[in-house]
Amino acid sequence: MLDLIPHESLSEELLQFRDSIRRFVERELIPLEHSLGPNGMLAPEQADSLRERARRAGFWLMDVPEEFGGQGLPLLALAVFWEEVGRSTVASWVRDHGLFGPMVGPILLGLDASQRARYLVPVLEGSKRSCFAQTEPDAGSDPSAMRMRAARSAGGYRLNGVKRFITRAALADFAIVMAVTDPEKGARGGISCFIVDMDAPGVTLATSEKTLMGDSPCEISFEDVEVPLANLVGEEGRGFALAQGYINYGRVRQGAHACGAMERCLGLTAEYVNQRKTFGELLSARQGVQWMIADAFTELYASRMMVYDAARKTDAGHEARLETFMIKTFAVEAGFRVVDTCMQLHGGMGLTEDTPIERFWRDLRSYRITEGPTEVLRTTMARQILKHYS
Ligand SMILES: Cc1cc2nc3c(=O)[nH]c(=O)nc-3n(C[C@H](O)[C@H](O)[C@H](O)COP(=O)(O)OP(=O)(O)OC[C@H]3O[C@@H](n4cnc5c(N)ncnc54)[C@H](O)[C@@H]3O)c2cc1C
């Protein structure tokens, strides 16, 4: 594979780490791509066996701090890891097989000691699963418009409202829920974060929506659900900030996954155009095709630089919020463009399940919407940039 890595961006140790995870992906994940079911998932026994092999190979709980039994890798190493696993559709972020350990975002890691014992530890041990519930039927891109109400009650809070498009809701034991505690303040101190057990009275799983990626996020209805004070996460009114932190982290992961997908699809495409002839000539001999390939590799290189740079800045303790927004708008959109080019250059084969390109294409299309549509990020970025010059 053509190794387009930003100059001196990865230490010798990180390069070795990258090679070892790449070998694991080539050996264990890519051969299973044809086993993914119509819902995009592996059979449970296949996933269990893969999880065990990942654990034995040392690729386990990479993003979980050492104090909780994880490896606590810095963000640059995680970006390298996410990029490599992003080269296979089996470990795509939308699949969420938890192949390298359960997903635990910053909110779960930030719980207080009692909440950690009741929720974080069981998640890490594999005995409980969580979901994250922010989106509502009338509040998606604009979560500040959420209506779900958490009113004070004798024992804590009473929750009423509906959440929509919640990934893993059907399998979750508890939900991390955002709700309005002070309608006057709204997003500026009026939204709080709660842990709600999915078997609590008043919690009902409503419809699920089938998506083009094969998954089925659910609607959850909350009707007079009593949540104890002990399940308020952080301070009242801090929910919005916590949720944004959770989503910021996801942007680097989405960008790194997009780089992995681009690299895999581009490798397959370069090989294909080098051997496919039309009208008596190789596709690779045509300037129109050459320019598509050159532009696509340039998009991969630029995206990777952005991901590595934002990760390095974060690791060095600098603020990189704007950069993570840029990753989402640039790298994620570039990922879809590049995979679409690869599909085009494969002709009819690109539309079949014989190559992984069509599944990458569907996954990357979703990245432009989930965890914040790119248009909304552009608006937020522009506001921050223009404020600087006002
Ligand atoms: C498969 C899947 C999984 C999901 N998982 C979760 C989950 O686990 N938890 C959770 O809380 N949510 C989840 N979501 C919800 C997801 O985050 C929202 O769908 C997303 O934020 C967009 O919200 P919306 O669908 O309501 O679109 P809308 O808010 O209705 O926006 C529609 C479109 O309008 C455009 N737009 C919106 N605002 C602006 C603007 N200011 N300027 C210009 N254009 C604009 C954008 O193109 C946007 O795509 C999931 C969604 C999907 C599809």
How far is the first residue's CA from the last residue's CA?
A: 46 Å
Total number of distinct structural domains: 3
Secondary-structure class: alpha+beta
- The residue fraction in helices comes out at 40-55%
Quick summary of this structure?
With 390 residues, the chain is an alpha+beta fold.
Please give the structural blueprint.
Blueprint: H1 12-29, H2 44-56, H3 75-85, H4 106-109, H5 113-125, E1 130-133, E2 149-152, E3 156-166, E4 174-180, E5 191-197, E6 203-208, E7 218-228, E8 232-233, H6 239-275, E9 277-278, E10 281-282, H7 287-315, H8 321-345, H9 357-367, H10 374-388
Parallel strand pairs: 1-4
Antiparallel strand pairs: 2-3, 3-7, 4-5, 5-8, 6-7, 9-10
Helix pairs in contact: 1-3, 3-6, 3-7, 6-7, 6-8, 6-9, 7-8, 8-9, 8-10
Describe this structure as you would to a colleague.
This protein is an alpha+beta fold. It has three domains: 103 residues, Acyl-CoA dehydrogenase/oxidase, N-terminal domain (Butyryl-Coa Dehydrogenase, subunit A, domain 1), CATH 1.10.540.10; 104 residues, Butyryl-CoA Dehydrogenase, subunit A, domain 2 (Beta Barrel), CATH 2.40.110.10; 149 residues, Butyryl-CoA Dehydrogenase, subunit A, domain 3 (Up-down Bundle), CATH 1.20.140.10. It is 45% helix and 14% strand. The strands form three sheets. Strands 1-4-5-8 form a four-stranded mixed sheet. A four-stranded antiparallel sheet has the order 2-3-7-6, with no helix packed on it. It has a two-stranded antiparallel ribbon with strand order 9-10. The radius of gyration is 22 Å and the shape is globular. The termini are far apart. The site of flavin-adenine dinucleotide (FAD) has 22 residues, from strand 1, strand 3 and helix 10. Flavin-adenine dinucleotide binds next to strand 1, strand 3 and helix 10.
